[in-house]
Amino acid sequence: MATDLTQQGLGRSRQPHSGLAGPGAPSARHGVRGGLARRGPAQSLEGGLGWFSIGLGAAAVAAPRLVCWLSGTRSPTLMRLVGARELVAGIGILTQRDRTPWMWSRVVGDTFDLAALSVAFTRGSRRGRAGFALAAVAGVAALDVLAAVRLTGSTTGRALPAVSGQTDIYLERSVTVSKSPEECYRFWRSFENLPRFMRSLESVRHLDERRSHWVARGPMAMRLEWISQITADRPGEEVAWRTLDDSGAAHAGSVRFEPAPAGRGTIVRVSLHYSPLGGALGAGLVRLLGHDPQSSIREDLRRFKQVMETGEIPTTHGQPTGRRSLLGRVTRQWGLTS
């Protein structure tokens, strides 16, 4: 999907899961042990960091003065906030299916912690303890970055039905639209309609029956262009595409139109594989700037639903609003926010 390619973000595959045990499935008494044994290095590392985050957060919230004394800092209130942040991140890592944003949130938190401890080390009177804490946080930060990068690239090489092309990262989102599959397909298949609900897409121009030229806005006001070729086209059911080899923004994707249960419209399901600029680390850093590809797909599908059901997208453009902050105006000027 174009808008998520331009955001250069990242995400994880949502694979269907069944609670029914099939042939060869482990017995219940071996379920937990077997699940841990099957975990890869990245999963074990992120799980350990999740528990570490919860332990550290609980200590900082319950005994902030003691943690301040051990770390060479002097603000129990700030320590409680750090503890709350660690608790939230740890719970997210251990409970959410998509752990990637929670791991990157730990990386961001480590950056602030390192800055605070650096100030305590250079200006405080507890330099010994501050120096020890600084070294410890630096080590944990290195593990956080390693786990986040591994998570970001953990979907490399997944196969996508009816889509060809080398891919790195996989994303999938869906929405239910109160229109028939045929109506949704016809609107989407006319690619000139896509900029109406894809915020980052500027234009799509047909070149022939299977190829089209796309122009989009990327991060930092970057302009992206590529040629897409249709790889599957089943009227009323699915459209799939991939960029040609000479395109500078490699990706492949599909959109499927499935009848919703009880005749309640259509489930529109978008799947996307793409290769972010700068690899997994570059994708993660861009995501830290606020470009979440999963959210972008969700918002584009929400706008598609509005266009199909009402013929327009509700907007607050032109209505009175408060003056943006300096940071808000700068980020908007550079294309980091809308």
Given the structure, what is the number of helices?
11
**Oligomer classification:** single chain
Determine the strand fraction and express it as a percent band.
Answer: 15-25%
- Given as residue ranges, the uncertain stretches (5+ residues, pLDDT < 50) are 2-42, 155-167, 316-321, 324-338
Mean pLDDT: 74
CATH architecture of the largest domain: 2-Layer Sandwich
> Topology as H/E string?
HHHHHHHEHEEEEEEHHH
State the end-to-end CA separation: 19 Å
The strand order across the widest sheet is: 1-7-6-5-4-3-2
CATH superfamily of the largest domain: START domain
Helix content: 40-55%
Question: Helix and strand layout, with pairings?
Answer:
Layout: H1 2-7, H2 31-37, H3 41-62, H4 64-71, H5 76-95, H6 100-123, H7 127-152, E1 169-177, H8 181-189, E2 201-206, E3 211-217, E4 223-234, E5 238-243, E6 251-259, E7 266-274, H9 279-288, H10 293-310, H11 326-333
Antiparallel strand pairs: 1-7, 2-3, 3-4, 4-5, 5-6, 6-7
Helix pairs in contact: 3-4, 3-5, 3-7, 4-5, 5-6, 6-7, 7-9
Please explain how this structure is put together.
The structure is a single chain. This protein is α+β, with helices and mostly antiparallel strands and 338 residues long. The chain folds into two domains: 2-11 and 155-310, Alpha-D-Glucose-1,6-Bisphosphate, Chain A, domain 4 (2-Layer Sandwich); 39-152. 47% of the residues lie in helices and 17% in strands. The protein has eleven helices and seven strands. Strands 1-7-6-5-4-3-2 form a seven-stranded antiparallel beta sheet. A hairpin with a 4-residue loop joins strand 2 and strand 3. The radius of gyration is 23 Å and the shape is elongated.
